[in-house]
Structures are given as structure tokens and as C-alpha cells.
TrEMBL record:
Organism: Acetobacter syzygii
GO molecular function terms attached to this record: oxidoreductase activity
Taxonomy, superkingdom: Bacteria
Domain Nitroreductase: 21-171
InterPro entries: Nitroreductase (IPR029479), Nitroreductase-like (IPR000415), Nitroreductase_HadB/RutE (IPR050461)
Name of the molecule in the record: Malonic semialdehyde reductase
Length: 194
């Protein structure tokens, strides 16, 4: 079990940044983030998430027109912008990822099931990326305010991947950060059924 400082790092004291410092994020750290996140469970070990890390000015300028106006400054200021995507043809990797289960043909025959599975499990893997980044000392800003088609055309069309959300990664400047927004209490959001 994690101690209080570990829980603080991942959840209790972790905050979503509004601004970033200029401290760079090394490629080795991005590799560590992915290598931790890929270990999280997915159904049938399907692992459909695909990630594009944008680290330079050319990539940022390709992304800029796709961002909603309210997100431009926060996203463009991040040292790294990750496009969390999924591969609709994830099932082509299932003979490697889940040998002996014969799952490839099952998903290949049902487009609706494969798309639902790819989106759900790719989103789950994106959440693992958030936790992995925080565990490695990075701050994380998830972003859904962007034009999906523009992002896919600019970055994903060649692979056929589908964009889900963006993750800005870096080291935050927390000066002037407002109080944390409230969260729902257990009794407001949960039911226990026996």
C-alpha cells in the first residue's frame, strides 16, 4: 500500500496546472511514463492506446488551429503535448498480446464491438498515463477542447488512429493557482448493492 506521500503525489495534492515552467521533459521520462502506463490492465490485454508526443515548435503549430480558443495558451505552453489516441485495428496485435485466445477474429468480425473496445480501453490507458506521469513527478493537464478531425488529419491519418484527448505534460507553475474545485462525496456518486 502506498503511504500518505505517495497518495498525495498521485491524488490528494496533485493539481491540474494553469501555467508551465520552462523546465524541459526529457524523452527518457516520456519513455518511462509509457512503460509504466502500458502495464495497467485492459480487457483481454488489448492495449489499443497509441500516443503521439509533440515536443517541438513544428508539431505545436500543426496542433494550434485544432485547439479551442480557451485552451490555446495552456496547451501551447506545455513542454510536451501527448495525443492520446487508439488504434481501431488494435485486434491485429492480439495474437501477440493475448496468445492462444483466438480473439483477433472475434473483434475483426464486429466493427461496433472493436470500436467500443478500442475507445474504452484506450481511454483507460490514457488515465494510466496520467497516474504514471504524476508518479514520475510530472504535472498533467488533460484536454478535450479540440477538433478531433483536424488532429487526426494532421497527426494520425497515416496510421489510421483515432484521437481521444490531449495530455499536456511538464512541470507546473502553481503561483496563484485557485483553490481546488469541489468533488462529489461518496454518497452523492456511489451506490453499494448487496
Amino acid at each position: 500500500m502506498l503511504d500518505a506521500s505517495g497518495l498525495d503525489l498521485l491524488f490528494t495534492k496533485a493539481r491540474t496546472p494553469l501555467r508551465w515552467t520552462t523546465r524541459p521533459v526529457e524523452e527518457g521520462t516520456l519513455r518511462q511514463v509509457y512503460n509504466l502506463a502500458r502495464m495497467g490492465p485492459t480487457s483481454g490485454n488489448c492495449s489499443p492506446a497509441r500516443i503521439v508526443f509533440i515536443t517541438g515548435s513544428m508539431g505545436r503549430e500543426k496542433l494550434r488551429p485544432a485547439l479551442s480558443a480557451g485552451n490555446v495558451n495552456r496547451v501551447m505552453g506545455a513542454p510536451v503535448i501527448a495525443i492520446v489516441a487508439h488504434d481501431p485495428l488494435f485486434f491485429e496485435q492480439l495474437p501477440y498480446l493475448c496468445p492462444g485466445e483466438e480473439l483477433r477474429a472475434w473483434f475483426a468480425a464486429d466493427v461496433g464491438l472493436s470500436e467500443e473496445t478500442a475507445f474504452r480501453n484506450g481511454t483507460l490507458q490514457g488515465a494510466y498515463m496520467i497516474m504514471a506521469a504524476r508518479a514520475l513527478g510530472l504535472d498533467v493537464l488533460p484536454v478535450s477542447g479540440f477538433d478531433q478531425s483536424m488532429v487526426e488529419d494532421a497527426f494520425l491519418v497515416e496510421q489510421g488512429w483515432r484521437a481521444n484527448f490531449l495530455l499536456c505534460l511538464g512541470y507546473a507553475d502553481f503561483d496563484g493557482l485557485p483553490e481546488r474545485a469541489p468533488r462529489l462525496e461518496f454518497d452523492q456518486a456511489c451506490r453499494v448493492v448487496e
